[in-house]
Amino acid sequence: MAILKFLPLLFMFAASFVEAKDIDLLLFDADTQTRFAGCLTCAPQEPDSICNETGSYGSRHLSKSFWNIHGPFGSKYSPDSPWNAKGAGLVVVDATGTVFGAFSRNPLSHGDQPPMSSVRYMITLYDR
């Protein structure tokens, strides 16, 4: 899976953001913001991290995983997947619910929240 090549790059972005802000950025479905999709900035050993290759949200084999190309958050056909060019993708929030931006290839899904620069860069790499 081509996107797995970007996993180290994703963690680099996530780690730098955490050091700067000292917060965990969480991913939820953009529509209801109730379906958890993993932690964007957690350390790879954390169970909820999308960088944990054996965790529920980081393994490419588990259904809830961000990297499962057949799952609701990893399929390029799912409206909740950031890889779907026409879907709503995911929203990036902290533990208090403050929205930091969108994680989506669809520029129309962002509303008044622009995608974070590191997320935008990852989507550009995915498109290539």
Describe the structure.
The two termini are 14 Å apart. It contains two helices and four strands; from the N terminus they run H-E-E-E-E-H. The longest helix has 15 residues, at 7-21. 36% of the residues are buried. The chain has a four-stranded antiparallel beta sheet with strand order 2-1-3-4. It is of the alpha+beta class and 128 residues long.
Report the biggest beta sheet as strand number plus sense, adding barrel if it closes: 4 strands, antiparallel
Q: What is the molecular shape?
A: globular
Compute the number of helices: 2
**Compute the gyration radius: what is it?**
13 Å
Sheet with most strands: strand arrangement: 2-1-3-4
| Secondary structure: number of strands | 4
Distance between the termini: 14 Å
> Strand-and-helix sequence, N→C?
HEEEEH
Mean pLDDT across the residues is 77
Stretches where pLDDT is under 50 for at least 5 consecutive residues are 3-20
What percent strand? 5-15%
Based on secondary structure, the structural category is alpha+beta
Q: Could you give a quick summary of the protein structure above?
A:
With 128 residues, this protein is an alpha+beta fold. Helix content is 20%, strand content 13%.
